[in-house]
Amino acid sequence: MFKLETMIYTSEDGTSRVFTLNPALQKQLDALASQHPEVCQRKARGETGGVTYQVRGAALAIQPVRAS
User: Fold this and answer.
1) Residues with Cβ within 8 Å of residue 19, at least 6 apart in sequence
2) DSSP per residue over 18-66, as a string?
3) What is the pLDDT of residues 23-36, one digit of tens each?
4) In the prediction, which pLDDT does 67 show?
């Protein structure tokens, strides 16, 4: 088993950079980027499969994961 890591870096200008190895989250962020390019842009894909996105602060919400 391995971790699907996600890192979020916030900036003073109200934007965040999101780096994720999680394919499900990449799919959600790709959909957001295509539907709302003014809010979310895909910036780079790394060699290990990670993707970096830039997201305007109001569009980013973090929800806790519920244990099942």
Assistant:
1) 6, 7, 8, 9, 50, 51, 52
2) EEE--HHHHHHHHHHHHH-TTTEEEEEE-TTS-EEEEEEGGG----PPP
3) 999 999 999 999 99
4) 63
- On whether the CB atoms of residues 25 and 52 are closer than 8 A, the answer is no
SS3 9: strand
Phi then psi for residue 2, to 5 deg, are -135, 160
d(CA 59, CA 39): 7
- Residue 43 makes CB contacts below 8 A (sequence gap 6+) with 17, 52, 53, 54
Signed CA dihedral, 35, 41, 43, 44: sign only: negative
Distance CA 17, CA 2 (A): 23
